[in-house]
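It is worth pausing here to work through a concrete case rather than discussing structure prediction in the abstract. The textbook approach is simple: state the sequence, then state the predicted structure, then interpret. We follow exactly that order.
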Amino acid sequence: MSSSASPTPPSTGPLLETRHLGRLDPGGVVELLKPTDFVLTPGAQIAITGASGSGKSVFLRALALLDAPATGQMLWHGKLISSEMIPHYRTCVSYLAQRPALVEGSVLDNLQFPYTLKSLRQRRFNLPKATELLAQAGKEPAFLQKNAQDLSGGESQIVALVRTLQLEPQVMLFDEPTSALDPQSASAVEHLVRHWFDADTSRAYIWVSHDPAQARRMSTRHLTMDKGVLQLEPQR
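Step two, the predicted structure:
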């Protein structure tokens, strides 16, 4: 956690809010994300579907502050996110891509890697917690010693997910995390996400998917994206 950031306050209001958040293409001409107002509240399980190129990933990456917005503002627990808040924000709001990026070495090396980052040096790797998360995905303790380069696509995604969930983020942004996985691996990822979510009612997530059945299964609210416009459907 950044020493310049104060701890995240209790979740008595929206976790994350955007006001007219927009993104342009690298040339600064095409609107990839139309100005968007959006509120993410504690306990939210939101799925977003839409055609390829509709702006789903653009929106998620903007929320994760991986790509700078062209317009608008973002608030975390009601406060505008300043540049000095970003390291702390990224420990609270995590993005999981479709294809995981693992470091060389073992599964254990990958799980320990985040704690070498400046923003997390005050925290310590918790082996029992990591082992328990792996168990939720059906992996035995011996899996920790497996070489990351020998992992299947499904195993790699499970490692990437456990590496993130062990840090106990308050918000997860899932960018089609199972689209390249076999059904068994996809089911393990879904189970692990539900386990993380159910452990704390103040958490929330957004799940981007091309699979309507999965979107229904993993959400209580379904939104759609079309040509950079987020359609805010009524809650059910």
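Step three, interpretation. The mean pLDDT is 91. Helices lie at 56-63, 86-92, 107-112, 127-136, 153-165, 183-198, 212-217.
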